[in-house]
Design brief:
With about 160 residues, the chain is mainly alpha-helical. The chain has six helices and no strands. α3 crosses α6. Mean pLDDT is about 90; it is low at about 1-5.
Length: about 160
């Protein structure tokens, strides 16, 4: 009986470590996608006369920008969240959808902060907050569970 308890403790510790890794890897992977897409967007659709690293200049010009300047930020937020949630769902030892949605929650908090620091048009803030985070995290969780299900049935 004592050996069984010891193995259970080891399994629980491994699960906790896996779940911590799921959060870190999901956040990191999603952030890399997000940052990369933002940089690509600045190269493909530059804001004339603005350094994209100058937050004050960006904040001042945001309300005047056209739709095309918001395509890559939206894609960065949505695809970064989707990738991060999928990664977390694939790695998590348990409660895979909860971990995927947790990543969506982390990215949602970041999105709210960015929309506050760089206030753009209302339509963008609403679309970004409503579509790019929790729905994408849910889809990422579903993708992770489908991948794992296919992997398990293929073994």
């Amino acid at each position: 009986m004592c050996l069984k308890f010891g193995n259970h403790k080891k399994t629980t510790m491994n699960s906790i470590l896996k779940n911590i890794l799921a959060v870190i890897a999901g956040w990191l992977g999603g952030s890399i996608i997000n940052i990369t897409l933002i940089q690509v967007g600045h190269k493909l659709i530059p804001i004339k006369g603005i350094d994209p690293n100058d937050m004050d200049a960006l904040a001042a010009v945001m309300p005047t920008l056209g739709f095309e300047h918001f395509i890559f930020p939206f894609l960065a937020h949505a695809l970064g969240t989707l990738a991060g949630a999928t990664i977390a769902g694939l790695i998590a030892a348990s409660h895979k959808m909860k971990f995927s949605l947790g990543i969506g929650g982390l990215f949602l908090l970041g999105g709210i902060m960015v929309n506050y620091m760089l206030p753009g048009p209302t339509w963008f803030a609403v679309a970004d907050i409503v579509i790019a985070y929790i729905p994408m995290a849910w889809i990422g969780g579903k993708i992770a569970m489908k991948i794992l299900e296919n992997k398990k049935s293929g073994e």
